[in-house]
């Protein structure tokens, strides 16, 4: 009886398998008709008629004029004008209008009316033809490296905080995957300027391509019809139809075991057409069959203001006081140049300045300014009546004029200091705007934001603190601020601690040796810096002591822990010879790191 029951059960199961196979075959036939049918056909299914993909594409093309018309209707009056003048005449202030393009690569240009005679240009929309036809420097997504492109995928050491990034030839990051699996970039959500129609399951050949900058984009992932799934704009924003926080992407915490990040094309039944995956198939970034870019996006990273640089430029910004400026001798900057690869070396030294003044000149804690009448005039200069920090002042023995470009109250201009021999507090500061415009209120203690050489992307040589060595905590704060102002994921900097010297007269004993408060402060700063920043620190006092000339005076200086007087012009400043020793040490640190 049991055997009979088993046979009947098997027979029933076989029948079910046969029925399932028949249904699968029928479903497969329906899919074939939907995929391969002509542009006029509907395929009858259990849920009703379904248009073929070819018909869906035809209907989309037919609907495009209406969609464009709907979008245009959202403008001031729904028109695209032949000239800017005609657009101005038909709109009110602050209304937007389109103008016919000046180039065949553009579909239209967007303006905002400012006044009856002035319009502000906002953007140029690329034509669909320009985007789809540009095939220059195109590479198929195969190995994960876009050869012949300015943008490529690279794997990073986990100590950088990232495991994978999309970077350009200068190392700038457009998209990055952190070790926790989150994607970092400057995302533009649901931006209507990108054609993101629903993508069909017959998509193939998803490719990454570089675009002509005239289109408004530098790089995009497109399908074979030129439709954009993900794009990088000229201003560094990543634009796409993003899904945030979706559960469709596997986001197990990523760790150091990651390897082999590649870009792959996926079968449509997976729900994706393209993705960036690791060696075990985890998706960091994907484009779904609906044309949406899906990932674990972290869109609230405050320090990502554009394209984030992974690495600084090789150009050097030398930040400091007279030990950096040092104009009376052949400087260490000049002697450094032939010892390293060719690059710009910026002299950021002003004699006599404290660490606070130096940091303020480079945006590491801005000077707060108050101007006469709390107003920046429509043109010309205005006197500065109060400053929290004197960023351009030097000791009373110096004279002349120093200037610093920057922004006050959103207005670009120049801060000028006329030095007074009566002392820093008597220096006269003025702010002069670059271009005439409307007068603007400037609140008391408004920050003056300086223009920084390299805009925060240069490698830094930081040497400050000698002129306020009696305030070690302030020096620490300013060094931290200078390191933090560098706009890169990887920081490249060297810190030189202040030297000690003293009376250079032969036979005289230094007043800065072991046991003095100056010595104790210097050593305390050296110890803190090496604990905080490790081998990025050059303790210049100890480095120069080894180059003593063996004389009684030099040996006495070494015994007291100060720079030998044969290497000093005076109490503290270096000779050409000691500058050479400094240059060679800095060159060694740069070259061994391949900076």
TrEMBL record:
GO molecular function, one term: hydrolase activity, acting on ester bonds
Highest taxon, organism lineage: Bacteria
Listed name of the protein: Uncharacterized protein
Source organism of this protein record: Pseudomonas marginalis
């Amino acid at each position: 009886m049991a055997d009979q029951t088993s046979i009947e059960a098997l027979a029933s199961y076989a029948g079910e398998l046969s029925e399932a196979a028949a249904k699968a075959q029928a479903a497969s036939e329906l899919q074939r008709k939907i995929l391969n049918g002509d542009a006029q056909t509907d395929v009858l299914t259990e849920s009703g008629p379904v248009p073929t993909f070819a018909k869906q594409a035809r209907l989309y093309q037919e609907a495009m004029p209406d969609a464009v018309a709907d979008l245009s209707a959202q403008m001031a009056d729904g028109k695209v004008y032949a000239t800017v003048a005609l657009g101005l005449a038909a709109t009110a202030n602050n209304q937007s209008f389109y103008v016919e393009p000046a180039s065949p690569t553009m579909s239209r240009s967007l303006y905002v009316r400012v006044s009856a005679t002035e319009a502000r240009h906002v953007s140029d929309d690329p034509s669909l033809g320009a985007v789809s036809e540009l095939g220059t420097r195109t590479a198929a997504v195969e190995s994960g490296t876009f050869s012949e492109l300015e943008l490529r995928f690279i794997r990073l050491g986990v100590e950088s905080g990232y495991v994978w990034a999309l970077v350009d030839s200068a190392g700038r990051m457009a998209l990055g995957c952190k070790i926790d699996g989150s994607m970092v970039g400057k995302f533009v959500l649901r931006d209507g300027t990108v054609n993101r129609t629903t993508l069909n399951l017959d998509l193939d050949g998803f490719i990454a391509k570089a675009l002509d900058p005239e289109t408004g984009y530098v790089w995009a992932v497109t399908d074979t019809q030129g439709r954009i799934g993900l794009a990088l704009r000229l201003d560094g924003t990543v634009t796409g139809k993003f899904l945030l926080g979706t559960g469709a992407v596997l986001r197990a915490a990523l760790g150091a075991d990651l390897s082999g990040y590649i870009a792959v094309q996926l079968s449509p039944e997976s729900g994706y057409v393209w993705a960036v995956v690791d060696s075990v198939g985890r998706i960091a970034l994907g484009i779904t069959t609906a044309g949406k870019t899906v990932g674990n996006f972290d869109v609230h990273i405050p320090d990502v203001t554009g394209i984030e640089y992974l690495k600084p430029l090789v150009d050097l910004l030398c930040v400091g006081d007279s030990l950096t400026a040092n104009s009376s001798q052949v400087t260490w900057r000049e002697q450094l140049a032939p010892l390293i690869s060719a690059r710009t070396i910026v002299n950021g030294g002003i004699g006599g300045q404290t660490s606070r003044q130096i940091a303020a000149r480079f945006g590491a804690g801005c000077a707060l300014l108050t101007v006469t009448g709390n107003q920046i005039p429509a043109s010309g200069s205005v006197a500065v009546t109060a400053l929290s920090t004197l960023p351009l002042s030097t000791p009373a023995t110096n004279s002349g004029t120093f200037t610093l470009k920057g922004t006050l109250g959103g207005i670009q201009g120049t801060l000028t200091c006329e030095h007074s021999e009566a002392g820093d507090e008597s220096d006269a500061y003025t702010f002069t705007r670059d271009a005439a415009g409307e007068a603007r209120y400037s609140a008391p203690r408004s920050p003056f934001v300086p223009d920084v050489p390299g805009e925060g992307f240069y490698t830094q040589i930081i040497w400050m603190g000698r002129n306020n060595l009696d305030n070690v905590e302030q020096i620490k704060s300013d060094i931290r601020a200078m390191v933090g102002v560098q706009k890169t994921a990887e920081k490249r900097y060297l810190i030189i601690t202040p030297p000690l010297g003293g009376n250079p007269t032969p036979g005289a004993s230094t007043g800065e040796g072991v046991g003095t408060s100056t010595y104790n402060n210097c050593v305390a700063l050296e110890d803190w810096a090496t604990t905080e920043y490790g081998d990025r620190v050059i303790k210049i006092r100890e480095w120069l002591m080894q180059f003593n000339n063996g004389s009684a005076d030099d040996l006495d200086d070494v015994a007291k822990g100060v720079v030998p007087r044969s290497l000093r012009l005076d109490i503290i400043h270096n000779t050409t010879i000691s500058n050479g020793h400094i240059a060679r040490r800095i060159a060694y640190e740069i070259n061994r790191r391949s900076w």
